[in-house]
Fold this protein.
Amino acid sequence: MDLHEQNEMLARITDAFFAVNNDWEFTYVNEEASRLLCRKTEDLIGKCMWSEFPEAVHTSFYSQYQTAMHEQIRVEFDAYYPPLAIWFDVRAYPSSSGLSIHFHDISQKKGLSLQKEQHYESLFISNPDAVFAFDLEGHYVRVNPAMEKMLGYRSDELLSKSFMPLIPEEELAMTKKHFTKAAQGCTQHYETRAFHKNGMIIDVKATNIPIIVNDKVVGVYGIAKDITDENKNKTMLVQAEKLTAVGQLAASIAHEIRNPLTSLKGFIQLIERTVPEARKSYFKIIQDELKRIEVITSELLYLAKPQAQEFKPEQISRIIDDVVMLMGSQALIKNIELHAQHLEILPAIECVGIQLKQVFINLIKNAMEAMPDGGKIQIIASRPNEDFIAIQVIDEGQGIPPELIARIGSPFYTTKETGTGLGMMATMQIIHAHNGTLDISSREGQGTTIHIRLPVASSNPHH
């Protein structure tokens, strides 16, 4: 092919096109290239590209062209050239004599694409819900600010780490199952729990969505929302409904029982005087049963009309010390060691002291009844943060099966032969009235732990 034919062929190329030799000197520049580069062809021929366009030395144009020239491989790339404010789509073809470069202006197309990217970026960054992306092994590759806020970790503390250490053991198998299904292409909606950086466990509603590129799943998106308060409010609402029902029932039962009970007690005492001594043991049984009815009636009355008491600052350590002293002799009789630890770290809190005293009496009494052969009961205090105190009551009893734990606190539900379930219900009611939480964990054959959290500054409406 002679030079004339070669020039004719080059002229037919509609893209912007230029060629440089091995010294980076322009050997050919077509009309479209001249237009896009805003330079006359005759001003470029024979000149060094990097001398004529020095700004390009610090861009991807320089590195890509060097790669094509020195490695003798074709390169394709998009790049922005700031001096001309243009996005170029570029293809560079090497030969033994230099480079042939085709390029065209894609600024409009790129602008629309960038605009769409910015829309998606805003959706990711500004989303009030936690949004994050995993690779197929479950490692975080991106997290948004709401995710950092929800779990308390900075993005650099999460990136490249697996989600698995953040999930409590009892939730891990289920959470992994949902992630696996999402990684296989099926969107998942579920609820789980996660560790916050401060050690607390939060309830989370999550969605896992497969990331699909070219019909292939390459990762998993996650969207999550903290529903701890929502679940707490639901629980408190259900509890309030139970208490309302029990309160109405209690009021009517107490009214109906108390008067005839008083009459029965009086007549039993009269009849007892006329009965031979040998049969008086029957009356002891009758009187014990009547006393039991009185105890149940008193508990019902408490639930029907809980005492409205004034909240004031009290030393929780002193309250627990008093209860330990009060229950100490009973513990000795039953061969039970009763220990309180770290009480000195507890601050004064806004509370109704007499009600919290009743809470700890009930819990220690329950723990003793779960340990007929003796053992140890520990009361351990801690301060997870400035806003809350935490107290655990730990026994070494027989424990409670998992399926029964959720029912504790329901009226008339009890695991004891002679219990009513009302004592635990009243205990939970008092803790909720103090804006606290009471959770139960147990292992059969090993014992039960009651976890109580109470706010340092009460926001009780009655205060």
The CA atoms of residues 257 and 306 lie 19 Å apart.
